[in-house]
From TrEMBL:
Family: Belongs to the mandelate racemase/muconate lactonizing enzyme family.
Name of this chain's protein: Dipeptide epimerase
Enzyme Commission code(s) on record: 5.1.1.-
InterPro entries hit by this protein: DgoD-like, Dipeptide_epimerase, Enolase-like_C_sf, Enolase-like_N, Enolase_C-like, Mandelate_racemase_C, Mandelate_racemase_N_dom
CDD domains: L-Ala-DL-Glu_epimerase
Pfam family, one: MR_MLE_C
UniProt cofactor note: Binds 1 Mg(2+) ion per subunit.
Gene3D superfamilies named in the record: Enolase-like C-terminal domain (3.20.20.120), Enolase-like, N-terminal domain (3.30.390.10)
Top-level taxonomic group: Bacteria
Keywords tagged on the record: Isomerase, Magnesium, Metal-binding
Domain Mandelate racemase/muconate lactonizing enzyme C-terminal residue range list: 131-223
Taxonomic lineage from the root: Bacteria, Pseudomonadati, Pseudomonadota, Alphaproteobacteria, Hyphomicrobiales
Cofactors: Mg(2+)
Length: 328
């Protein structure tokens, strides 16, 4: 019996404004996929990202281009040959994982060879703003164990990180510059991060200019985000960075993400599990990466005004594995 595939775009308001070095947003637009087979339904969600040349329309077109193959039974391996890494393949891949788990009657993490999936502590994001506004946001979140601080402004990043540290003296701080620094500013900004006791700095330089990291003296580990997507992009960055941020929307799904974890670990790179701003349906498959991660950044639903019904359970910054009714 052929599978049935449904695709939809959904919009979820963000609580306030989410701002990074590339701009601000007040809503998250996601694309969801549902694959039905013999009364069982598998679901996946992705977030089209303009930084990677994606729009909602282009991602929907990609998914539609695979409709016939998926309807006729294409598995996750076949899917990787049909579509490039990116949001569209991610939604389909995760929906197939969910469908496989429900068909087998076994949790997705067991199918992936993971013995146990437990609760983890996620980062909580402080958006880019003035030092004063970021300090106020940090004070309100000071009871959260790990804060991810968005930097990358043309000026005042040392003041921003100092203000956040003063407002949240006990928190572990991770800085994400979103490609917003340059060869001229990186040394001073890293020094400010070191003075604030920052634990990790994410993507300080533009992906096409990160070769400058090769000779850079550092006291803080540096993590690749925009510079690494899947295993094919790993060799170029392996000697430049100390860690990589794995996001399912970049890898093209959980299947490639699990393989990327293995290869990156062999190369001695630490793992961060990240996300775009989406709902719990997008976070749920990424939970399978958390047992191998040094840092977990799956706070997308916490940034929304309201998550989708039946979402993940968050207790402060503790996030629990999904129930089968959500995914997997």
């Amino acid at each position: 019996m052929p599978r049935r595939l449904a695709v939809a775009a959904e919009t979820f308001p963000i609580a306030g404004r989410f701002t990074i070095a590339r701009g601000s947003r007040t809503e998250a637009v996601v694309v969801t996929v549902a694959i039905e087979s013999e009364g069982r339904l598998g679901r996946g969600e992705c977030v089209p990202y303009p930084r990677y040349g994606e729009t909602v329309e282009s991602v929907v077109r990609q998914i539609e281009s695979a409709r016939s193959a998926v309807s006729e039974g294409a598995d996750r391996t076949a899917l990787a040959a049909l579509l490039p890494p990116g949001a569209g393949r991610n939604a389909l891949d995760c929906a197939l994982w969910d469908l496989e788990a429900k068909t087998a009657g076994v949790a997705a993490h067991v199918l992936a060879g993971i013995d146990r999936l437990g609760p983890v502590t996620t980062c909580y994001t402080i958006s880019l703003d003035t030092p004063e506004a970021m300090a106020e946001a940090a004070r309100k979140a000071a009871d959260r164990p790990i804060l991810k601080v968005k930097l990358g402004g043309l000026m005042h990043d040392p003041e921003r990180i100092a203000a956040v540290r003063a407002a949240a003296p006990e928190a572990t701080l991770v800085v994400d510059a979103n490609e917003g620094w340059s060869e001229d500013t990186i040394a001073a900004n890293l020094a400010a991060c070191a003075a604030a006791g920052v634990a990790l700095v994410e993507q300080p330089l533009p992906a096409d200019r990160d070769a400058a990291l090769a000779g850079l003296s550092r006291s803080i580990p540096i993590c690749a985000d925009e510079s690494v997507h899947d295993r094919a992009s790993l060799p170029r960055v392996a000697d430049l960075y100390d860690a990589i941020n794995i996001k399912l929307d970049k890898t093209g799904g959980l299947t490639e993400a699990l393989a990327l974890v293995e290869e990156a670990t062999v190369r001695g790179l630490s793992i961060m599990v990240g996300c775009m701003v989406g709902t719990s349906l997008a976070m749920a498959p990424a939970m399978l990466l958390t047992p191998r991660a040094r840092f977990v950044d799956l706070d997308g639903p916490l940034l929304l005004a309201e998550d989708r019904p039946g979402g993940l359970t968050y207790e402060g910054s503790i996030v629990y594995p999904p129930t089968p009714s959500l995914w997997g």
